[in-house]
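Worked Example 4.2. Consider the chain below.
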Amino acid sequence: MTELANPQAQRPDPAGSVDAGQLIFPPGFLWGAATAAYQIEGAVEADGRLPSIWDTFCHTPGRVKEGHTGDVACDHYHRYRDDVKLMADLGLRSYRFSVAWPRVQPTGSGPANQAGLDFYRRLVDELLDHGIEPWVTLYHWDLPQALEDAGGWPARDTAARFAEYAELTHAALGDRVRYWTTLNEPWCSAFLGYGSGGHAPGRSDAADSVRAAHHLMLGHGLAVQAMRAARPDHDFGVTLNLYAVSPQDPAASADVAGDADAVRRIDGLANRIFLDPVLRGEYPADVVQDLCNVTDFEHVRDGDLAIISTPLSMLGVNYYSRYVVAAPAPATEPVEPYWRQPSCWPGSEQVRFVTSGRPVTDMGWEIDAAGLSEILQRLHREYPELPMHITENGSAFVDEVSADGAVHDPDRLAYFDAHLRACHEAIAAGVPLRGYFAWSLLDNLEWAWGYTKRFGMTHVDFDSQVRTLKSSGKWYAEVIRRNGLAAQ
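Applying the procedure from the previous section yields the following structure tokens:
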């Protein structure tokens, strides 16, 4: 039996240092990369897998850019050995991947599909054979379509089904996998999936989006309890996409107080609606008040918050950009069309998101590395002490294979460099940051953007499936090798 890869190496000293002109990260800092099942695996009908909500969404005309689907994606299901070899060549210490729920439980309930689990057994063994610590994310948005047909995340029963699935997967892989993340970015699942409808399953109902958020967290708590009962020595956590939130430049504002309230509202819906239940066992009172015209919270039952706040041993932080917001436009001004569209900000639809003049990625997201250090230090200052990992951080840019056969991506390299410096700054300030997972190992299906946006350190030709390591990937391998960055 393949054993866990050196779990003691994952307990670094809490502080980084500056040594011989370099920013050195703590000993044992966990360097990794991350992916998600539907974005890379392909093989959507192999070995008993049935459709997920993303299969359905992608095959619905008009939902995904250029009609792209995950039917083949990066064909990782068949090419995983080559991809693990790529990870080993990069020097990755850990690989964060998600398990596809419809491979393990094709209809979302009942006994495990052993053929589906066997793929993940093979993947885990391959990782361990190369000295790479496997890090499992149980849910990265691919709800079995049968459960969506039964009500999806707005239905309470889905939380119970998720805990059952988590227990089955943990039982199959727990002898070799120590690190377990329950959910990836429940904000997206709830508010893009059931609020704006921009993500699968593509529903637009404000009250349903709030119910979905609660049941996602309830499923998280139930899953942690079930897995910890079997193996209390494992590390369990959740991954949240968090944002520093700032008001627009006061010099450009006609309503500074309104801008401050916009910050409070968006911070509440982006960050605190998940952080407070998970880490404090309570909903923020102001967020509940903001949502009073959306829902009466009757879906929250006695005992739910105690389950949701089941103690964790780690917190995953996904960070991409900062939100800069402003008060709603005065009533005398024309209402922007998007205000009348389904919103991922229930109860705060008229808050304006503004630009601040920073450079942007190909997604249009402003680049603000300082926001990463800001959110990490805020977590350390305001919430219970908990080891943290950056479970996603990365950027999309337009990449092409050059005439020399290489892929030069200096903008992505600069993005990684700046954000790793922000991580080092946070560690030096006392933040218990234990690791960093670059997003992403491979170019992949960027959800509703299809294959039109590239986040990978490795270029993928989606016709030939040829992988080409980009200059950012080569740079990251050197960062891992020396456990640090050159000082500026």
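The longest strand covers residues 133-139. The radius of gyration is 21 Å. Compare this with Example 4.1 before moving on.
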